[in-house]
Amino acid sequence: MNVLQFTDKGIWCPAGDFYIDPWKPVQRAVITHAHSDHARWGSAHYLCQKETVPLLQLRLGADISVQGMDYGEMLNINGVRVSLHPAGHIIGSAQVRVEQNGEVWVASGDYKLEQDGISAPFEPVRCHTFITESTFGLPVYRWQPQQQIITDINRWIYENQQAGKASVLLAYSQGKAQRLLHSLQDTVPHFLAHGAIANVNELLRNNGYPLPLVERITPETPKSAFKNVVVMAPPSADDTVWMRRFQPYSLGVCSGWMQVRGNMRRRNADAGFALSDHADWKGLLSAVDATGAEQVYATHGFSSVFARYLQEKGIAAKEVTTAYGEEEIITNTES
């Protein structure tokens, strides 16, 4: 039974008549998380995990029609049982479990297995069919523990301060930036931030998340304020006039793509930190194994390689083309 189908609008549940992370406007959209490639404007009604609601409103507009659910809460949609389960990707991220006549499918959205200290930890969900991302579905991508990477970042910041430089960290404004702010707040007394990051940080602080205060950078911020400080900026700010005000500065890029040294050179970065909000090769395999799925669909990323590897392990796996993964393109590095 095909509980879910892949269409030109997105992942569709025919019986429930809803779409999961549709990339075209639909009547009813179930959203895994609030990143732009999974949460698009134009649908009539949205359903998501309750912590994603304010993030979705920030991205799509406060006037959207949106319903929030707790993790594990069960909702009946036209006879189909739908529930959301932690994906560990960013705050509020969820896997979507869909059950019809005893057949269970799970759409993972994006996920990571390592606990980051701020997102609800990934929860394996048993199913017959698993739709998995494969952003980093190559054996070369194997992450170091988060604390080791944070230690490396702190060392880099200290070296920059000794050299009289500001430390500019590029990180996706929704997810990665908060992970860094939360992890560095005990060692960095003061953060300056691009407006995109300051907006998300303020929103989440107002919703009770233990994030440090950041100083929003404005045209009135004096150049003297940038000496030896830590600046948080989205990758879109790289190589812009906005960045020049921090000179002299050292540029650090926080992305899983930094696992491959050539990517750091192409970004003209001074340092690359392979901190990703996605599962690495071992994490992907572990997640698939934990579901017990008999059938796996691999989407966005190295999907053909990952599907072929699963096939060699005796799992019925297929590659599926979707419109996800835009924030992962190395030219944006919002990963």
From TrEMBL:
It comes from the Bacteria. It is an enzyme of class 3 (hydrolase). One of its GO terms (molecular function) is exonuclease activity. The keyword Nuclease applies. Keywords: Exonuclease, Hydrolase, Ligase, Nuclease. Gene3D superfamilies: Ribonuclease Z/Hydroxyacylglutathione hydrolase-like. Its EC number is 3.1.-.-. SUPFAM superfamilies: Metallo-hydrolase/oxidoreductase. The keyword Protease does not apply. PANTHER family: BLL1145 PROTEIN, CLEAVAGE AND POLYADENYLATION SPECIFICITY FACTOR FAMILY MEMBER. This is Ligase-associated DNA damage response exonuclease. It comes from Chitinophaga solisilvae.
